[in-house]
Amino acid sequence: MTTIKADAAVRTFTRKSATTTGDRVVGGISHTILTVWCIIVVLPLLWTVMSSFKSSSEIFSSPFSLPAKWNFDNYVGAWTTAGIGSFLLNTVIVVFGALAVTMLFGAMCAYVLARFQFPGSRGIYYLMLAGLTFPIFLAIVPLFFVLRSIGLLNTLPGLILTYAAFALPFTVFFLFSFFKALPNSIAEAAALDGAGEWRTFFQVMLPMARPGLATVAILNFVGLWNQFLLPVALNTDPKNYVLTQGMASFASQAGYSVDFGQLFAGAVMTIVPVFIVYLIFQRQLQGSVSQGTSK
């Protein structure tokens, strides 16, 4: 018996040694690539933050040195003079409005297509998938005339509806498989308890889909926050500018005489909301969808 245990221990140790060697090689390569990628991403961000505390002359004279004086004058100037504050407010209204519309109707659409079979359901799903392949620039001209005809051109509600329309196909595509994987027994148990379809969806199935909803929400948020082509073409009223338009206008309005310190400060203020949202939802991004369905 002792001999058998010793042989088993030797075989286990040998397998572990071989596996550990391979894991070390793969781990070393992976960590090296991730370290290089982290440096490529982080260093420009740190340089942007550092430059936001400098004046334009200091940025050109010593671009890689620390600021001679750390102050928030550039942030105050960017917020007031450059109008970053109003641009940020417009962006928050548009992005979160579009996100609310997209998540509500996207989740409902994905749930119905995943859980119910009816004539045309597969066709609707494939049309949603086709929307993922449709380039934005091909829809600019039709969207312009449609929004103008209904009185929503150069308005924030018009941008909200446009943003939601372009984010909806990806939301349905992402949540479709998620709702498809949810066990039928839970919905059947809710039905036996007297819950209707609406109550089953909002009180039972939707909470179970929370990890998937959080993941698609943060992905949509980043895409909508960085949207540039749609607002430039459909929102030419300066008082309704979003951040991407405001930053582009601020960078080009004075040519080479632009205040680069304020420009970098505005860029930092543009990045911070995305960073905060990521910190809030990072656990959902790191977790797998399958783990969320098993809870």
Question: Can you describe this structure in just a few lines?
Answer:
With 295 residues, the protein is mainly α.
C-alpha Rg (nearest Å): 26 Å
Characterize the largest beta sheet: strand count, sense, and whether it forms a barrel: none
Structural class call reads mainly alpha
Helix content range: over 70%
Give the uncertain stretches in residue-range form.
Answer: 13-17, 288-295
Rounded mean pLDDT score: 84
What is the terminal-to-terminal distance? 43 Å
Shape: globular
- The fraction of residues in strands falls at under 5%
Number of strands: 0
Order of helices and strands: HHHHHHHHHHHHHH
Count the helices. How many?
Answer: 14
Task: Please write out the topology.
Blueprint: H1 2-51, H2 56-61, H3 73-80, H4 84-115, H5 121-132, H6 140-149, H7 156-181, H8 184-192, H9 197-208, H10 210-225, H11 229-234, H12 243-252, H13 260-286, H14 289-293
Helix pairs in contact: 1-13, 3-13, 4-7, 4-10, 4-12, 5-7, 7-10, 8-9, 10-13, 12-13
Describe the structure.
With 295 residues, this protein is an all-alpha fold. It has helices at residues 2-51, 56-61, 73-80, 84-115, 121-132, 140-149, 156-181, 184-192, 197-208, 210-225, 229-234, 243-252, 260-286, 289-293. The longest helix is centred in the N-terminal third of the chain and has 50 residues, at 2-51.
